């Protein structure tokens, strides 16, 4: 077991980095727009299938070229759905439960659309053979190294946007206190547009990486991944981008190390045990959840 630890830990770190991309995108959507997107898993699925169209069905592009195209396509889908569906509903009725139902319904509609377009059969990308590298006691593939590098690059870009740009500071301000941010002249709709584009791109790329990791995928790929995304967001602190990064790291490492202790099929129990502990002793998450003003509005 000790000999397996470095390799398992390395794969856990890679999984955590990819999970962080999806979790940060989800929590930013909530932080800026003030509603949970329960159809978020279908953003991942859309990205995975757009890359499949680019890589296999139509253009036969290299999967690494198809990946950013899928990110752009998912960003556009995200923007259109918010503008055409979510925003009009929010203007009419902003109650949390009402919006949850709307986002869930959109997710179901998208999933059924995928089934109509691509069917229920499992698909696979045309990928080059995996090159393996020996890094001390760890044997890892080139694709795993690339996944980690892409995820880290996206996290650093997110950090730079949130910390050093006017857009990022505005996003953080509106996540902290929506009413105060609006009084100070920030435009929630414009910020929401930017957020849905940014998070859609991140979700699309995360979906492609996830499909490459599991090798074969179907219309349920995103839904099967949300049991990791939601706990990462909850543990880190709902609405907190850096909390989602931290929560994703904990979940990724916990699930991979768990296979050394319990059967892989039971590893989700570790995640839900962590959630129970978090809810009991620190319900606001490790880095704190929404501010008091934001909570009042919800």
Give an account of the 3D structure.
The protein is mainly alpha-helical. Helices cover 72% and strands 4% of the residues. The protein has one domain (5-119, 148-297). The protein is built from 12 helices and 4 strands. The chain has a two-stranded antiparallel ribbon with strand order 1-4. Strand 2 (132-135) and strand 3 (138-141) form a beta hairpin. Helix 1 crosses helix 6. The chain is globular, with a radius of gyration of 19 Å.
Q: Tally the helices: what do you get? A: 12
The coarse overall form would be globular
> What integer value in Å does the Rg equal?
19 Å
The residue-averaged pLDDT reads 87
Order of helices and strands: HHHHEEEHHHHEHHHH
Distance between the termini: 47 Å
Provide a short characterization of the protein structure:
The protein is mainly alpha-helical. 72% of the residues lie in helices and 4% in strands.
Give the key terms.
298 residues, mainly alpha, two-stranded antiparallel sheet, 12 helices, globular, disordered C terminus
């Amino acid at each position: 077991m000790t000999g397996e630890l470095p390799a398992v830990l390395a794969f856990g770190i890679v999984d955590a980095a990819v999970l962080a991309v999806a979790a940060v995108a989800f929590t930013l959507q909530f932080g800026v727009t003030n509603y949970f997107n329960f159809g978020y898993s279908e953003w991942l699925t859309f990205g995975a299938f757009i890359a499949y169209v680019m890589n296999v069905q139509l253009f036969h592009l290299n999967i690494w070229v198809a990946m950013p195209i899928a990110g752009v396509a998912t960003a556009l889908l995200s923007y259109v759905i918010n503008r055409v569906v979510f925003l009009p509903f929010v203007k009419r009725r902003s109650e949390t439960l009402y919006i949850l139902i709307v986002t869930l319904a959109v997710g179901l509609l998208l999933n059924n659309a995928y089934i109509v377009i691509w069917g229920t059969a499992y698909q696979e990308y045309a990928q080059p053979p995996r090159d393996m590298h020996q890094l001390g006691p760890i044997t890892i593939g080139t694709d795993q190294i690339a996944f980690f590098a892409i995820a880290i690059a996206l996290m650093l870009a997110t950090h730079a946007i949130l910390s050093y740009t006017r857009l990022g500071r505005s996003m953080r301000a509106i996540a902290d206190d929506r009413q105060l941010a609006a009084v100070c002249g920030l435009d929630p709709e414009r910020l929401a547009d930017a957020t849905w584009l940014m998070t859609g791109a991140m979700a699309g790329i995360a979906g492609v990486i996830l499909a490459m990791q599991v090798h074969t995928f179907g219309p349920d790929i995103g839904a099967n991944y949300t049991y990791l995304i939601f706990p990462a967001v909850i543990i880190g602190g709902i609405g907190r981008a850096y909390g989602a990064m931290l929560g994703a790291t904990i979940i990724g490492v916990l699930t991979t190390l768990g296979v050394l202790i319990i059967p892989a099929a039971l590893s989700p129990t570790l995640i839900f045990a962590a959630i129970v502990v978090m809810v009991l002793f620190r319900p606001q998450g490790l880095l704190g959840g929404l501010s008091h003003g934001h909570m009042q509005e919800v």
